[in-house]
Amino acid sequence: MKFNFFKKDAVDFYTPVNGKIVPLEEVPDPVFSQKMMGEGIAVIPTNGNIYAPVKGTVILVAATKHAIGIRAEDGSEILIHVGLETVSLEGKGFNVAVKEGDRVSAGQLLIEVDWEYININAKSTITPIVITNSQEGKKHYAFTEEKEGTAGKTVIFTASV
């Protein structure tokens, strides 16, 4: 007889923004496409704001408001990087609704985004979602095969031990 007292259930991470889901390898930036920061997936946003993909704690809010990091309750650390080369916008086009140390629930508003401004002034709106501690090898991440995502509704990946 086997006892799994310490076995943790899988944790679902939801799409943080409405849009087309694409593999991380399709992000036109080698830092992301070559997985230098970790495993992940990306969304080409169609509309809407950025929402928490999972319950956890905000561990990073970029000074330029273009990126946010969350440590999920299972220990996975997620970076949501809104657009490419958006650091140069110096916060314009973003309104952050949380701060470092805040506890968040899946589906909670993180960043209001002016996609029209980002589309005109940045390299791309594509939004990588990277598991920055995936290389530790403690968890297995299964990514969705869905092609379209709805923020807070579509599971984008699942983490399991």
TrEMBL record:
Subcellular location: Cytoplasm
Gene3D superfamilies: Glucose Permease (Domain IIA)
Matches recorded under SUPFAM superfamilies: Duplicated hybrid motif
Main location: cytoplasm
Top-rank lineage group of the source organism: Bacteria
Pfam families, alphabetized: PTS_EIIA_1
Coiled-coil ranges from the UniProt annotation: none
Keyword list, A-Z: Kinase, Phosphotransferase system, Sugar transport, Transferase, Transport
NCBIfam families attached to this UniProt entry: PTBA
Name assigned to this protein: PTS system glucose-specific EIIA component
Protein's organism: Neobacillus rhizosphaerae
Classification lineage: Bacteria, Bacillati, Bacillota, Bacilli, Bacillales
Name of the encoding gene: crr_4
